[in-house]
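Hi P.,

Sorry for the delay on this. The queue was packed all week, but I finally got your sequence through. Input first:
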Amino acid sequence: MYQIFKKELNSFLNSLIGYIVIGVFLTATGLFTWFFKDNLLDFGYADMSLFFQIAPYIFLFLIPAITMRAFSEEVKSGTIELLFTKPLSKWQIVLGKYLASCSLVLLSLLPTLLYYYSVYQLGNPQGNIDSAAVFSSYLGLFFLGCVFAAIGVLMSSFTDNQVTAFVLSFVCCLLLFYGIGQIAQLSFLGDFSYLLSQLGLDYQYNALGKGLIDSRNIIYFLTVIFVALWITKLKISSLR
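Then the structure:
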């Protein structure tokens, strides 16, 4: 698995893909957080909620761009057959590619800790910020990125076209993050609406942002990740 992980991560970092993704994420979140209308400075409170509101929507575009080539490129070029000849299990192949994508998500988030440091210093009095809520929100954002990556890797295993993989990943992630919550607001659902809303990624993500890390939220994210990767493993097994 380490060989696959190292190969995938190096392919990101030895090309422009990784740096473009990190650069776009930092630029977009920085502009919305510090410069655009209703930014943090205009808001007047030592709070990073604006960053955590906009970051998931940027991930919706960037993470499918990371994962779209995971298996689709291997299938299109025929190197998937070569990959199967190596002494690696299907799980090792899937996890190697998936963890490389998660690593890029983490590398995108680490520089944004400067936002937290800046807000901490600007607080009146200094340090007047809910650090517990910030770090639980970071945990939620990382898990959300990992879920998007798992879905992206899954969609990439269904097609040999990278653009198609991108579109499928984007639509699925958007549906899970935004669509379920919107559907749950339909009046005819009645009491079922609250239960349905809890199945949405946005509900679980926002729950972690309250400063209390609930094991149920973590289990939800891990379950979605496992199911997506398990289906990916079944799919690539059928390619052999």
